[in-house]
Protein backbone atom coordinates (compact mmCIF):
# COMPACT_ATOMS: atom_id res chain seq x y z
CA UNK A 1 0.00 0.00 0.00
CA UNK A 2 1.48 3.35 -1.09
CA UNK A 3 0.16 5.33 1.89
CA UNK A 4 1.52 2.79 4.34
CA UNK A 5 4.98 3.00 2.77
CA UNK A 6 4.80 6.79 2.82
CA UNK A 7 3.92 6.89 6.52
CA UNK A 8 6.46 4.26 7.55
CA UNK A 9 9.26 5.58 9.72
CA UNK A 10 12.44 5.24 7.62
CA UNK A 11 14.37 4.02 10.66
CA UNK A 12 12.37 0.78 10.69
CA UNK A 13 11.25 0.55 7.06
CA UNK A 14 14.02 -1.87 6.04
CA UNK A 15 14.50 -3.67 9.36
CA UNK A 16 13.85 -7.41 9.51
CA UNK A 17 10.91 -7.64 11.91
CA UNK A 18 12.06 -11.03 13.19
CA UNK A 19 15.56 -9.80 14.10
CA UNK A 20 17.06 -8.17 17.17
CA UNK A 21 17.51 -5.02 15.05
CA UNK A 22 13.74 -4.50 15.23
CA UNK A 23 13.90 -4.51 19.03
CA UNK A 24 16.77 -2.02 19.07
CA UNK A 25 15.09 0.40 16.67
CA UNK A 26 11.71 0.16 18.40
CA UNK A 27 13.26 0.87 21.78
CA UNK A 28 15.12 3.91 20.41
CA UNK A 29 11.90 5.25 18.92
CA UNK A 30 10.00 4.57 22.12
CA UNK A 31 12.57 6.56 24.09
CA UNK A 32 12.73 9.45 21.61
CA UNK A 33 9.04 9.89 20.78
CA UNK A 34 7.30 11.46 23.75
CA UNK A 35 3.74 10.85 22.55
CA UNK A 36 3.99 7.09 22.07
CA UNK A 37 6.20 6.78 25.16
CA UNK A 38 3.44 8.34 27.26
CA UNK A 39 0.91 5.95 25.71
CA UNK A 40 3.04 2.95 26.66
CA UNK A 41 3.62 4.22 30.18
CA UNK A 42 -0.16 4.52 30.57
CA UNK A 43 -0.39 0.89 29.46
CA UNK A 44 2.21 -0.08 32.05
CA UNK A 45 0.26 1.75 34.75
CA UNK A 46 -2.85 -0.09 33.58
CA UNK A 47 -1.04 -3.42 34.03
CA UNK A 48 -0.13 -2.40 37.59
CA UNK A 49 -3.69 -1.27 38.34
CA UNK A 50 -5.18 -4.51 37.02
CA UNK A 51 -2.71 -6.56 39.04
CA UNK A 52 -3.57 -4.73 42.27
CA UNK A 53 -7.31 -4.88 41.60
CA UNK A 54 -7.54 -8.55 40.61
CA UNK A 55 -4.48 -10.28 42.12
CA UNK A 56 -4.10 -8.31 45.36
CA UNK A 57 -1.12 -6.45 46.80
CA UNK A 58 0.78 -9.42 48.16
CA UNK A 59 4.37 -9.91 47.03
CA UNK A 60 5.20 -12.47 44.36
CA UNK A 61 7.32 -13.07 41.29
CA UNK A 62 6.14 -11.27 38.16
CA UNK A 63 7.33 -11.59 34.57
CA UNK A 64 6.66 -9.94 31.22
CA UNK A 65 6.50 -12.15 28.14
CA UNK A 66 7.43 -10.83 24.69
CA UNK A 67 9.22 -7.88 26.27
CA UNK A 68 11.03 -6.74 23.13
CA UNK A 69 11.43 -2.96 23.35
CA UNK A 70 9.58 -2.80 26.68
CA UNK A 71 10.26 -0.06 29.23
CA UNK A 72 8.11 -1.79 31.86
CA UNK A 73 11.01 -1.89 34.34
CA UNK A 74 10.72 1.88 34.67
CA UNK A 75 7.32 1.34 36.32
CA UNK A 76 7.87 -2.10 37.88
CA UNK A 77 11.63 -2.53 38.50
CA UNK A 78 11.28 -6.05 39.89
CA UNK A 79 9.46 -7.55 36.89
CA UNK A 80 11.56 -10.11 34.99
CA UNK A 81 11.70 -9.23 31.29
CA UNK A 82 11.51 -12.27 28.99
CA UNK A 83 11.38 -12.85 25.25
CA UNK A 84 12.06 -15.59 22.71
CA UNK A 85 14.77 -13.39 21.15
CA UNK A 86 17.90 -12.69 23.19
CA UNK A 87 18.97 -9.04 23.33
CA UNK A 88 20.96 -6.76 25.60
CA UNK A 89 18.97 -5.89 28.71
CA UNK A 90 16.76 -8.99 28.62
CA UNK A 91 16.58 -10.88 31.91
CA UNK A 92 15.79 -14.31 30.49
CA UNK A 93 15.00 -16.05 27.20
CA UNK A 94 11.60 -17.69 27.65
CA UNK A 95 9.14 -19.44 25.35
CA UNK A 96 5.73 -18.40 26.70
CA UNK A 97 4.31 -21.76 25.62
CA UNK A 98 6.91 -23.72 27.60
CA UNK A 99 7.99 -21.63 30.57
CA UNK A 100 10.99 -22.55 32.73
CA UNK A 101 9.16 -21.80 35.99
CA UNK A 102 7.93 -24.11 38.71
CA UNK A 103 4.27 -24.90 39.34
CA UNK A 104 2.42 -22.03 41.03
CA UNK A 105 5.65 -20.00 41.28
CA UNK A 106 4.40 -16.76 39.68
CA UNK A 107 2.00 -14.11 40.87
CA UNK A 108 1.54 -12.33 37.55
CA UNK A 109 2.36 -12.60 33.85
CA UNK A 110 2.21 -9.41 31.79
CA UNK A 111 2.07 -9.20 28.00
CA UNK A 112 1.81 -6.05 25.86
CA UNK A 113 1.06 -6.57 22.15
CA UNK A 114 2.45 -10.10 22.24
CA UNK A 115 -0.49 -12.51 22.74
CA UNK A 116 -1.33 -12.48 19.03
CA UNK A 117 2.22 -13.62 18.23
CA UNK A 118 1.69 -16.97 19.97
CA UNK A 119 1.32 -19.79 17.41
CA UNK A 120 -0.64 -21.88 19.95
CA UNK A 121 -2.41 -19.65 22.50
CA UNK A 122 -3.86 -22.70 24.26
CA UNK A 123 -0.37 -23.93 25.14
CA UNK A 124 0.30 -20.52 26.66
CA UNK A 125 -2.94 -20.65 28.64
CA UNK A 126 -1.96 -24.11 29.89
CA UNK A 127 1.27 -22.59 31.15
CA UNK A 128 -0.60 -19.72 32.81
CA UNK A 129 -2.70 -22.31 34.64
CA UNK A 130 0.41 -24.23 35.68
CA UNK A 131 2.88 -21.51 36.71
CA UNK A 132 0.51 -18.98 38.31
CA UNK A 133 -0.51 -19.39 41.92
CA UNK A 134 -4.19 -19.32 42.91
CA UNK A 135 -5.36 -15.71 43.00
CA UNK A 136 -2.69 -14.68 40.47
CA UNK A 137 -2.84 -14.72 36.71
CA UNK A 138 -2.14 -12.86 33.48
CA UNK A 139 -2.79 -9.32 32.31
CA UNK A 140 -2.61 -8.96 28.53
CA UNK A 141 -2.92 -5.94 26.23
CA UNK A 142 -3.63 -6.78 22.60
CA UNK A 143 -5.49 -5.49 19.52
CA UNK A 144 -9.20 -4.97 20.08
CA UNK A 145 -11.94 -6.31 17.79
CA UNK A 146 -14.32 -3.32 17.46
CA UNK A 147 -15.19 -1.59 14.16
CA UNK A 148 -12.28 0.87 14.16
CA UNK A 149 -9.72 -1.74 15.17
CA UNK A 150 -11.03 -4.24 12.60
CA UNK A 151 -10.76 -1.64 9.83
CA UNK A 152 -7.34 -0.26 10.76
CA UNK A 153 -5.49 -3.45 11.69
CA UNK A 154 -6.45 -5.09 8.40
CA UNK A 155 -4.50 -2.35 6.64
CA UNK A 156 -1.74 -1.37 9.06
CA UNK A 157 1.01 -4.00 8.64
CA UNK A 158 2.17 -6.17 5.77
CA UNK A 159 3.78 -8.79 8.06
CA UNK A 160 0.63 -9.31 10.17
CA UNK A 161 -3.06 -9.71 9.40
CA UNK A 162 -6.44 -9.35 11.13
CA UNK A 163 -8.86 -12.23 10.54
CA UNK A 164 -11.66 -13.02 13.00
CA UNK A 165 -12.49 -16.24 11.13
CA UNK A 166 -8.96 -17.72 11.20
CA UNK A 167 -8.06 -20.72 13.38
CA UNK A 168 -6.53 -20.00 16.77
CA UNK A 169 -3.51 -22.24 16.15
CA UNK A 170 -1.33 -21.15 13.23
CA UNK A 171 2.13 -21.77 11.80
CA UNK A 172 4.28 -18.66 12.15
CA UNK A 173 7.42 -18.08 10.10
CA UNK A 174 9.11 -15.93 12.73
CA UNK A 175 8.41 -14.43 16.17
CA UNK A 176 6.85 -11.32 14.61
CA UNK A 177 5.73 -12.54 11.17
CA UNK A 178 2.31 -13.80 10.06
CA UNK A 179 0.58 -13.05 13.37
CA UNK A 180 -3.20 -12.69 13.49
CA UNK A 181 -3.98 -9.49 15.37
CA UNK A 182 -7.54 -10.76 15.95
CA UNK A 183 -6.29 -13.69 18.05
CA UNK A 184 -7.64 -12.37 21.36
CA UNK A 185 -11.08 -12.11 19.72
CA UNK A 186 -10.79 -15.68 18.41
CA UNK A 187 -9.82 -17.16 21.79
CA UNK A 188 -11.80 -15.07 24.27
CA UNK A 189 -14.91 -14.21 22.21
CA UNK A 190 -15.45 -16.57 19.27
CA UNK A 191 -14.08 -19.63 21.09
CA UNK A 192 -15.09 -18.57 24.59
CA UNK A 193 -16.93 -21.84 25.23
CA UNK A 194 -13.78 -23.77 24.33
CA UNK A 195 -11.69 -21.59 26.63
CA UNK A 196 -14.12 -22.11 29.52
CA UNK A 197 -14.19 -25.86 28.90
CA UNK A 198 -10.41 -26.29 28.66
CA UNK A 199 -9.48 -23.94 31.48
CA UNK A 200 -12.11 -23.94 34.24
CA UNK A 201 -9.32 -22.91 36.65
CA UNK A 202 -8.84 -19.63 34.75
CA UNK A 203 -11.45 -16.92 35.24
CA UNK A 204 -11.78 -14.22 32.59
CA UNK A 205 -12.37 -11.34 34.99
CA UNK A 206 -12.00 -8.44 32.56
CA UNK A 207 -11.91 -7.43 28.89
CA UNK A 208 -11.95 -3.66 28.61
CA UNK A 209 -11.25 -1.41 25.61
CA UNK A 210 -8.50 1.18 26.13
CA UNK A 211 -9.16 4.77 25.17
CA UNK A 212 -5.72 6.20 24.27
CA UNK A 213 -6.25 5.26 20.61
CA UNK A 214 -6.17 8.86 19.33
CA UNK A 215 -2.63 9.47 20.57
CA UNK A 216 -1.59 5.97 19.53
CA UNK A 217 -2.65 6.67 15.95
CA UNK A 218 -1.30 10.22 15.79
CA UNK A 219 2.03 9.20 17.33
CA UNK A 220 2.62 6.62 14.62
CA UNK A 221 3.56 4.07 17.27
CA UNK A 222 7.04 2.62 16.82
CA UNK A 223 6.62 1.94 13.10
CA UNK A 224 5.16 5.06 11.51
CA UNK A 225 5.82 8.79 11.38
CA UNK A 226 4.17 11.03 13.98
CA UNK A 227 1.40 13.09 12.40
CA UNK A 228 1.16 16.01 14.86
CA UNK A 229 3.70 17.68 17.19
CA UNK A 230 3.91 16.89 20.90
CA UNK A 231 2.26 20.24 21.60
CA UNK A 232 -1.03 18.63 20.48
CA UNK A 233 -0.98 16.06 23.30
CA UNK A 234 -3.34 17.99 25.66
CA UNK A 235 -5.85 18.45 22.83
CA UNK A 236 -5.64 14.79 21.87
CA UNK A 237 -6.19 13.78 25.48
CA UNK A 238 -9.29 16.00 25.59
CA UNK A 239 -10.60 14.37 22.41
CA UNK A 240 -10.09 10.92 23.95
CA UNK A 241 -12.00 11.98 27.05
CA UNK A 242 -14.87 13.40 24.96
CA UNK A 243 -15.04 10.20 22.89
CA UNK A 244 -14.78 7.90 25.90
CA UNK A 245 -18.46 6.78 25.72
CA UNK A 246 -17.70 5.47 22.20
CA UNK A 247 -14.55 3.55 23.09
CA UNK A 248 -16.15 0.16 22.34
CA UNK A 249 -16.52 1.36 18.75
CA UNK A 250 -13.28 3.31 18.42
CA UNK A 251 -10.73 1.54 20.64
CA UNK A 252 -7.69 -0.10 19.04
CA UNK A 253 -6.54 -2.17 22.01
CA UNK A 254 -8.06 -3.84 25.05
CA UNK A 255 -6.84 -5.24 28.35
CA UNK A 256 -7.61 -8.87 29.20
CA UNK A 257 -7.31 -10.18 32.77
CA UNK A 258 -7.16 -13.90 33.57
CA UNK A 259 -7.17 -14.97 37.21
CA UNK A 260 -6.47 -18.46 38.52
CA UNK A 261 -9.28 -19.52 40.80
CA UNK A 262 -8.59 -20.36 44.41
CA UNK A 263 -8.90 -24.02 45.27
Strand content: 15-25%
CATH topology: the name is Rossmann fold
Question: In the CATH hierarchy, what is the class?
Answer: Alpha Beta
Mean pLDDT: 95
**Biggest β-sheet: count, sense, barrel?**
7 strands, mixed
Strand order of the largest sheet: 3-2-1-4-5-9-8
Looking at how many chains there are and whether they match, the oligomeric state comes to single chain
Q: What are the segments in which pLDDT stays under 50 over at least 5 consecutive residues?
A: none
Provide the structure class. Answer: alpha/beta
Order of helices and strands: HHHEEEEHEHEEHHEHHHE
Name given to the CATH architecture: 3-Layer(aba) Sandwich
Tally of structural domains: 1
Distance between the termini: 52 Å
Total strands: the figure is: 9
Global Rg: 18 Å
What this model shows, in words?
This protein is of the alpha/beta class. The chain has a single domain, classed as Rossmann fold. It has ten helices and nine strands. The strands form two sheets. A seven-stranded mixed beta sheet has the order 3-2-1-4-5-9-8, sandwiched between helices. Helix 4 links the parallel strand 4 and strand 5. The mean pLDDT is 95.
In short:
This protein is an alpha/beta fold and 263 residues long.
Give a topology summary.
Layout: H1 2-7, H2 20-32, H3 34-55, E1 62-65, E2 80-83, E3 92-93, E4 106-112, H4 121-131, E5 132-143, H5 147-156, E6 160-161, E7 179-180, H6 183-190, H7 192-198, E8 202-210, H8 213-219, H9 233-242, H10 247-250, E9 253-260
Helix pairs in contact: 6-7
Amino acid sequence: MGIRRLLMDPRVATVNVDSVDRIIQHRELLVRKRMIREVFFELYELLADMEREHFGREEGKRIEIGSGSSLLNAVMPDVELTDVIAYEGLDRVVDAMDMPYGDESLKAIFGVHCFHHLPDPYKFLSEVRRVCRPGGGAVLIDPYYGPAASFIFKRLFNNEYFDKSAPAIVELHGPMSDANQALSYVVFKRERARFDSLFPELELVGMQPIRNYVRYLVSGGVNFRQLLPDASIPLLRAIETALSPMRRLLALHHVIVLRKRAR
